[in-house]
Amino acid sequence: MRISKTLLALGLGAALAATSFAQAEDKVVIGFSQIGAESEWRTANTNDVKKAAEELGIELKFSDAQQKQENQIKAIRTFIAQKVDLIGFVPVVETGWDNILREAKRAKIPVMIMDRDLKVSDDSLYVAKIGTDSYAEGRKMFEWMDNYVTQTDRKARNGGDKLNIVILEGTVGASAAVGRTNGFNEALAASPNKDRYNILAAQTGDFTRAKGQQVMESFLKSYRDDIDILISQNDDMALGAIQAIEAAGLKPAQDIIIIGADAVKGMFQAMIDGKANATIECNPLQGKIFFETALKVLKGEPVQKVVYVDEGVFSADQAAEVFPTRKY
Ligand code: GZL
């Protein structure tokens, strides 16, 4: 039977389209909205997300929100319009997500959360969260500090009966900051040693090195020889604060105890250099478990609603030995 050239062309066209559709069909497409690039930790998190997606053969549409929630909302709306298979994002702040997540739900696109936490009126607006337990990290910051003060029989530099603490907080409204603040404060309030301490000042350094240095400079201007301990809610702000402490003629980790969070390489180096005392790990390497969970979601397999990645605590006396094993 003779097939007309037109029919043949149509048939080939359809076959090609089907093939390309089939290829597209094979590749899972995930839209991912990342907060930005505010810290060493975030950069490690982004690199891990991209590496894991590539290793799992996922087509990743990646968006950097430059710390702005409105940019994340715009990116999620774009992913919906592009009809991606799944949407993932790190919520820069805890609240303000209900509407956009309802739009995703109406479009029947599952949403997963990475790293930070969010507050929504209906937990069915996201299918799973892979993250870090900021509240536990805050408690560990207090516990390490209190143990160290006990072991070294630390006295207030100004001769007073309380050790004065200043706190560099993370981004206002971010679950990582809220969790670490609540964890630290609740551990302090419940401690039999609570009367040893006084929180002299707490201010956001927005998780950045530059802001951490700037806020520490202002703390030193106001309280120089009254400050005994710096609690920094991430290592980047602690590294900035160390510069401010040295510029003020004080010895970081000696005159002022310095405890950070994240356990990034820069903080290990500071501990090796004798300029920081400890850091509470917050593991950014969440990509593999995140995308493996996403693939299960897309296959309709059951997944855990919340999974926390493993996190440790590192002090200066083990920094040199551990440093070579650090991946970020
Ligand atoms: C914590 C993460 C925080 C890090 C900061 O889970 O969201 O954001 O502690 C980063 O370094 O900026």
UniProtKB/TrEMBL annotation:
It is found in: Cell envelope. GO terms for molecular function: carbohydrate binding. It comes from the Bacteria. Residues 30-301 form the Periplasmic binding protein domain. One of its GO terms (cellular component) is cell envelope. Residues 1-24 form the signal peptide. InterPro entries: Peripla_BP_I, SBP_2_dom. Transmembrane segments: none annotated. Pfam families: Peripla_BP_4. Keywords: Signal. One of its GO terms (biological process) is transmembrane transport. Belongs to the bacterial solute-binding protein 2 family. This is ABC transporter substrate-binding protein.
